[in-house]
Amino acid sequence: MNPVPLCKLDSVSSLKCTVPQVDASLKICNGMPHNERGLLSHCGFSNFPFYTCYGCSQVQPSPDNPNPPQQVPDGQNARFRLPANCSTPFWDPIKGECICTSSTCAFVDDSRPAGPNGANLTGGGLGGSFASGTAASSIPTYVPFNGDSHVISAA
N or C: which end of the chain has fewer CB within 10 A? Predict the structure, then answer.
C-alpha cells in the first residue's frame, strides 16, 4: 500500500528489530550468545552436525521424524521444549521455566499445526509450560522483538 524504495527500506518501522531485553548475566540457553555461552549441546550426526539448546536427539531428525526423543546424558535431565506461551529469548529449556514475568514479554503461539493430519510440528507446546506472567485471553497479544504491539484476532 505504501511502497518504499530499496534504499529507504531501513526506515520502515515494521521491518526494524531490536534485541529482547534479557539480563545478560543470566545463564539460560535461549539463542542469545551472551546468555547461552557454555550451555549448547553439540549433536555430532555424521551427515548433519548441529548445536542446540534443546538437547540432542537419539536419532538424526528427518522429515518423517522431525522431533525424535532426546538423548539424555548421564547425570543430566532432559531439556524442556519451547511451550506455546513463552517467547524463545525468555524460555529456559534447562529449568523448564519462562523468565518473562510481565505483559511486555508475554507470548501466545498462534501458529497453525504444520504436520500431517493436524500434527503440531511447529515446536510450540512440546513439553513444559508456565503459569505466571500471562493471563489467558480470548484475543491473544503478540509483542514482536521490535516492541510494536498489535492484536492478532483469534480465528
Answer: N
